[in-house]
Write a structure and sequence with these properties.
Residues 10-63 form the GST N-terminal domain. With 66 residues, the chain is α+β, with helices and mostly antiparallel strands. It has helices at residues 2-8, 21-31, 54-65, and strands at 39-42, 48-51. The chain is 45% helix and 12% strand. The longest helix is centred in the C-terminal third of the chain and has 12 residues, at 54-65.
C-alpha cells in the first residue's frame, strides 16, 4: 500500500496503530477491528468506509488516482 501511495504521488496521512494507542483505538472504533493495513475513506457525503486488504486498497487507489 505504501509503495502504491508513493508511486501515485498521493498525500495520504499514515498512522501507526501499533505504537500509538490513540490510533489503535480509532481503528477499532471506526472500522470495527484492529487490522493493518487499513485505508479510511471519507466520501463526499461524509460517509466513512474502512478498507482492509492490501490488494483491495491498491486497486481502489489506482482506480481513483492512477
Amino acid at each position: 500500500m505504501r509503495k502504491e501511495i508513493a508511486r501515485l504521488g498521493l498525500n495520504i496521512e499514515v498512522r501507526d496503530a501499533q505504537l500509538d494507542p490513540a490510533h489503535k483505538q480509532a481503528l477499532l472504533e471506526g472500522g470495527g477491528k484492529v487490522k493493518v493495513p487499513c485505508l479510511k475513506i471519507t466520501h463526499d457525503d461524509g460517509r466513512e468506509e474502512w478498507m482492509y486488504e492490501s490488494d483491495t486498497i491498491n486497486a481502489w487507489l489506482h482506480q481513483q488516482f492512477g
